[in-house]
Amino acid sequence: MQPINLRAWLVPALLLAIAIALPFFVPKYYVQFASKALIMGMLAMALNLVVGYGGLVSLCHAAFFGLAGYVLAMVTPKYDPVSLWWSFPFAVGVSAFAALIIGALALRTRGIYFIMVTLAFGEMLFFFFHDTRVAGGSDGAYINYKPEIAIAGRVLLDLEKPLAFYFVVLALLVATIALLTMLVRSPFGHALQAARDNERRARSLGFPIFRLRLIAFVISGAIAGVAGYFSAAQFGFIAPQTLGWHVSAIILVMVLIGGLRSVAGPLVGALVLLGLEEVLKATTVYWKLAEGLIVIAIVLLLPHGVRHLLTAVLGEKTEEAQQPKAKVEHA
């Protein structure tokens, strides 16, 4: 029985305490910014389940993200808030169903072909909302009121208040981290990673590779839908550009910055990238150029991601260090 690593629990608990205390000590603008960063971190973690643990680079996760936002826009009345109790699972279900259909087709391909197929499906959804009059066409759609959390007509949480919205997002983020941690440490997660590392050997051992990857893809799409629902609720607007491939590319950059084979690494990557943008926008008009150079430097200097720096503090080992080195057998 391995001894409990107190540092591995102490640091996350400390970070959670800081996140809980944060909105009481900063202006409202930074509370809203923090909510946005946590939502994008949730989206990046969703993508990482497929990319980091499944070994599949998807360029259509922005479509699942934006699709949930469009569902919220279409079910919200013009002059009244919609109930979160049914609109939230409905929007997430639509994103999960879209992931099921796209995954069932895309996962029949491999490598660069998988990337291209997911890109194609993402662009199809983008042009569907952009070129038709569904939900406002190229102008997008507005959400005049945030969803309502109420029981018997009594409002439990007013999401119009930035503080309440922040804590709901934070609770969902913690639940997402717990779910993904449980998944990747379960037999399902080990089988998914085995298929990533050596598909031929995993198949020879009888692992249902297609089914494993499809389940991971659907779960990932559903979590992306959670993030998309609350992103649309926060800004009160959804546009076709949200579904575009460039958003998927930005999410992928967050995953790479934070670390591929870590549940919370992409969250760190999202915080770093969005925080970097916020600082650079206030510093120089050439912030995009500066951001690109800094991202390149991070990728070159920290190939395992920013999250890798925290392992010394947490007393953890990386996944690569935990796994025994494979012996090379010559024929």
Q: What descriptive keywords fit this protein?
A:
331 residues, two-stranded antiparallel ribbon
Structure description:
The chain contains 14 helices and 4 strands. The protein is mainly alpha-helical. A two-stranded antiparallel sheet has the order 1-4. A two-stranded antiparallel ribbon has the order 2-3. The longest helix is centred in the last third of the chain and has 27 residues. The radius of gyration is 20 Å and the shape is globular.
Task: Write a compact overview of the structure shown.
It contains 14 helices and 4 strands. The chain is mainly alpha-helical and 331 residues long.
What is the multimeric organization of the chains shown? single chain
Look at the helices and sheets and give the structural class: mainly alpha
Give the proportion of residues in helices. 55-70%
**Can you tell me the residue ranges where pLDDT is under 50 for at least 5 consecutive residues?**
318-331
How many beta-strand runs? 4
Largest sheet: 2 strands, antiparallel
Spatial order of strands in the largest sheet: 1-4
Shape designation: globular
**Strand content range:** under 5%
What's the alpha carbon Rg, rounded to whole Å? 20 Å
